[in-house]
Amino acid sequence: MQALEELYLRHNRRVYSLCLRMTTNVADSEDLAQEVFIKVFHYVRGFRGDSAFKTWLSRLTVNHVLMHFRRRSLRPEQSSDEEIPARALGDTERFRAMTILNRIGLQRAIAQLPPGYRCAFILFHVYGHDHDEIALMSGHSEGTSKSQLFKARLKLRTLLRTPAH
Predict the structure, then answer these.
(1) pLDDT at 136
(2) 122, 154, 151, 6: which is closest to 58 by C-alpha?
(3) How far apart are CA 153 and CA 158, in angstroms?
(4) I want to staple 20 with a disulfide (CB 3.0 to 4.6 A). Which of 29, 30, 124, 143 is the partner?
(5) SS3 sequence of 95-158
(6) Which of 156, 64, 59 lies closest to 102, judged by CA?
(7) How many angstroms separate the CA atoms of 149 and 121, rounded?
């Protein structure tokens, strides 16, 4: 039990942050993060060590959130009006240098991306994963990861050029 508690303490922020970035909904993210750790507690014995634990946990989280979207038949574009906290988009110098209006615009644009695009964009640009790691986590090919990231960037450019109403 102590080992499971240690896993939770080490990784709960990462799991919650990934859920929040994918759902853009604070309440759903809290619920999903708890559900992920319930799964971790059940499946941790099945972890073979073929990849890093963080990669395995990220894949479990991504798959759980994607299943959440499938079950509820929700499109992330129709998610809550809650704003993604600035800390959820990363603490990079470039992000800190942005004006608050640019940050809000970026958060809203990311929230409008389809789930696959958003997942690829966040895993690549926020978490710094390579395409082979993203492919492993999402269960797609490396080419699909590259394609979704490319399309996400195109869509973000379009969304950011369009003035907010």
Answers:
(1) 82
(2) 122
(3) 9
(4) 29
(5) HHHCCHHHHHHHHHHHHCCCHHHHHHHHHHHHCCCCHHHHHHHHCCCHHHHHHHHHHHHHHHHH
(6) 156
(7) 5
Joined together, the tokens standing for residue 98 give 């942005």
What is the distance between the alpha carbons of residues 56 and 64, in angstroms, rounded to a whole number?
12
Q: Where are the domains of the chain?
A: 2-161
pLDDT digits (tens, 9 = 90+) for 14-50: 999 999 988 888 899 999 999 999 888 888 887 888 8
Write out pLDDT tens, residues 69-117.
Answer: 877 754 444 444 444 444 444 445 555 555 666 777 788 888 889 988 9
Per-residue confidence (pLDDT) for residue 76, from 0 to 100:
43
Determine the Cα–Cα distance for residues 162 and 141; give it in Å rounded to an integer.
32
**What single letter denotes the amino acid at residue 136?**
L
Instruction: Please give the CATH number for the structural domain made up of 2-161.
Output: 1.20.140.160
Please check whether residue 38 is in contact with residue 4, taking contact to mean a CB–CB distance below 8 angstroms. no
Percent of the chain residues past pLDDT 90, beyond the cut: 21
Joined together, the tokens standing for residue 58 give 């990220």
Q: Which two tokens stand for residue 126?
A: 């926020």
pTM of this structure: 0.53
Give the alpha-carbon dihedral of 39, 4, 51, 114, to 10 degrees. 40
